[in-house]
Structures are given as structure tokens and as C-alpha cells.
Amino acid sequence: MAFAMAEITAHERKQDAGECARSASAWAASASIGDSPISREAALRFIHCSDSELPHLLAAAKAAKEKFKPGTITYSRKVFIPLTNLCRDYCGYCAFRRDPGENGAHTMTPAEVLEVAKAGEKLGCTEALFSLGDKPELAFPQMRETLRKLGYKSTLQYLEAMCGLVLRETSLLPHPNPGLLSAEWIGRLAAVSPSMGLMLETINASLLSSGAAHDNAPDKLPAKRLHTIEEAGKQQVPFTTGLLIGIGESLEDRVDTLLAIRDLQERYGHIQEVIVQNFRAKPRIPMRNWPEPSLGEMLRAVAVARLMMPGMNVQAPPNLSAPYYDDLLDAGINDWGGVSPLTPDFINPEKPWPHLEQLRRRTEAKGKQLRQRLPVYPEFVPQVLSRSGLLAEKLQSALAPDNLAREAA
Ligand code: SF4
Question: How far is the CA of 102 from the centre of ligand 1 (A)?
């Protein structure tokens, strides 16, 4: 079901604000939306809601966000460090990965890592987002050779060293996204980064079947990803995860993916952020002709995420919903994710981030203040500070009094 968000907002704007608020609260009451997280049944109903119901769903989600974190939208000012774009998986929607020898294939040297991090530091960045393919050395002898020359046995060992380098030599805090991790590696990376992430993406294991999005992507087996997120929970590592919509999953799968994340949060309390990311078609990917989810689908997914998890941080990347990205604020997000003033989005290179000043203007136009946060969210800062050593020291020196980022002048 595709429709233009502009039509919704035009319709909403025509209504008297008081009347709209009254009808939204009457709808919320009739839909049994209170302060508690909504049930699976309610989430399924809402994710299927009609266009005429959508403004009410959005109003309920926006109200839930305002109860959770009133008046503020956060973002993390980051540099993107694509440590290696070699990957042993072949996801159908991925424009990032390369095989060895392919045009653009690259593993960064320590000097390149430091150069990007220092340039970001000058621009007031506080996050070094390490993105990389999943264990490429298991598939490619060329990567084993690259690592040997660099002095490391595995990509994760190299990542650990580069997180340590950035932590020692700059004021940036590393946030690694290296794919599946064992309990041991979660512990090792947690010593050099205050938070880390792994997108669950979807709970639907049938997407690994022939011709589907995760065909030939063994690391995308949902059970393996849930296991990594759970191990991080056992070690109380602040963790970012989320779902990817529009890759062949059903609306029911979207709800069940959010439920799985909520379940992990209820058991371990370590999920610091839930990302709702929409698939975008790109020229060089296998799924280049796959239909993109509409903005309406995206807004429903975000609003349902907010109502299922009213007390959790919900994020959606602005560059993937441009030019209507500020409509995501109406669906209950409280964060824009990482936004770089320096490096492009290497995962979606054709979709540049909005300029920070534009992001601020459009956030303020919705009546919200834009604040810079660190890669670790404020409510998770105390547990990282309780670890001793360089990581806690660096985190402490980057903090504002309210545990957001001490902003650059
Ligand atoms: S999405 Fe991640 S795991 Fe999949 S191919 Fe790209 S880099 Fe590899």
C-alpha cells in the first residue's frame, strides 16, 4: 500500500489541532493504548492499519515518545570507519561488500583509521563507527594475508586493536558493528568500546532460502544473531540492534522481530537503541529491482516499534527517508542515529546524510531540540563508567552533565 506522506500531513494540517488531539486520544482509548507496551495482537492490527487510521496511530506513537523523552531528539556525531569491506556473506541488498580484487575492495591501514578519526575529532565528532564485513578471512586467503602483514590473526583481533588505537589517540569513542560475536569477543571489544551493535534485521529464517535476501549469507541466520545479542545482554554491554524492513519479510515478521528484541530487553535490559531501517534499492546490488517499502510502511513500523517499546530508544536514519525524514518525528522516534559531518554513509553511499544544520532546523520546526549524544546512550553511561581504566576516563571526559555529549563549540 503506497501513498505519499505529503498527503497525510496536508490532511492533518487542515484539521483543527484541538480536534485532532481529541480524535487521536479517542482512537487511542478505543484501541486500548495506554502507558504499557502494546500486545502482539495490537501491534499486528496497527501495522495493518488503513490510511485513514494512520494519523491516529502516529499521534499515539508521538505522545508515547513525548512521555519517554519530552522535547528532545538526539543524534550521534560520528565518523564512519569502514575497516574492511570484504565479507564472507552475500546479502542481496548490500552495496558495501566486495570480494578481494573487486573494484573498491579495501582494508584500511592503522594510519588511515587514525587519519579519519582525527579529522572527525576536529569537527566535533564523538563516535567512531566501525563497520566491516563478517569474518572475511574465513572465506578469502587474500584477507588472511592482509591480516598477517598487519600483524593480526583475525579481523576481530585487528578491529580490537583499531578500537584501542582510536581510544588512546583521539577523543572519539569506538562503536563496532562487526557481525556475529562469541561471548569472548563481546568481552574483548567491550574493553575498548562503550557500546556495540548488530542488526537483528528479521526473525524470518526463510530469507536464507534460495533467491531470497539472505541466500548465501549464513551469518544472517536469526538464531545466531539472537545468540550474539543475548551474550551481550549476559555481559551487560549496551547494545544497538534493530530491524530492516522491505527485504521480503511480512508485516507479521516485522512485529515478531520487534517482539524478539523486546523480549531480550526484558530479560537483560541492555538494548540501548532499536533502529528501524528501510531497504533502499541501489544500482549495483542483486536486489536492485526490488520494490522499496513506502514511507507509509516505514511510518507504521516506527510507530508500532514505539508503542511496543514505549520506554526504549527508537531510531530511524534520516538519509534513508529523505526528503520526508522529519515526518519520522511524527511516528515516535527519539533519535536520528549516527550523522557524519565528514564521511559518507558507506552502507548507502548514494543517500548522503542531511547537513547537521538542516537536521537541526527541521527538528526544531517540529518543536524539538536537537542534542548530540555519545555512542552510548545517557541511561547506559553509569554502567560503562563503573568499569575502570581508559575507556571510563575517555567517556567521562566526553560527557555533558546530563550524560549526553559535551558539544563542540
Ligand atoms: S550486509 Fe553485512 S553481512 Fe551482509 S554482505 Fe553486507 S557487509 Fe556482509
Answer: 15
Give the Å distances, CA to CA, from 149 to 142, 146, 152: 11, 5, 8
Atom of ligand 1 nearest to the CA of 88: 8
Going by CA atoms, what residue is nearest to atom 2 of ligand 1?
Answer: 133
Give the pLDDT confidence score for residue 1 in this predicted structure.
Answer: 32
Chain centroid to CA 268: how far? 19
Residue 134 Cβ contacting ligand 1 at under 6 Å: yes
Architecture of domain 72-398: Alpha-Beta Barrel (3.20)
213 Cβ below 6 A of ligand 1: no
Strand partners, 127: 78, 173
Locus of grid cell 487542515: 14
Mutate to test the pocket of ligand 1, among 81, 86, 97 (most ligand atoms within 8 A of CB): 97
Secondary structure (DSSP) of 323-380:
TSGGGGGGGT--EEEEE-SSS--SSSTTSPPPPHHHHHHHHHHTT-EEEEE-SS-GGG
Over the chain (409 residues), the average pLDDT of each successive run of 10 is 37 47 66 84 97 96 97 96 98 97 97 97 96 97 98 98 98 98 98 98 97 96 98 98 98 98 98 97 95 97 98 96 92 96 75 86 96 98 94 97 85
- Using N-to-C axis directions, what is the helix angle for 390-398 and 155-169, rounded to 10°? 50
Residue of 80, 88, 91 to mutate, ligand 1, most atoms within 8 A of C-beta: 91
Please state, in angstroms and as integers, the Cα–Cα distance from residue 13 to each residue in 17, 196, 222, following that order. 8, 40, 41
Q: Is 94 in the pocket of ligand 1 (CB under 6 A)?
A: yes
CA 75 → CA 114, 308, 348, 378, 399, distances in Å? 23, 22, 18, 12, 14
State residue 15's pLDDT score: 46
Nearest ligand 1 atom, CA 85? 7
The angle, 0 to 180 degrees and rounded to 10, between the axes of the packed helices 17-30 and 54-68 is 90
Residues 384, 87 contacting (CB under 8 angstroms): no
Sketch the domain layout of the chain as residue ranges.
72-398
Give the pLDDT of residue 52.
95
CA neighbor of 178 nearest in space, from 168, 188, 167, 165: 188
Q: Is the CB of 256 under 6 A from ligand 1?
A: no
Distance 277 CA to ligand 1 centre (A): 15
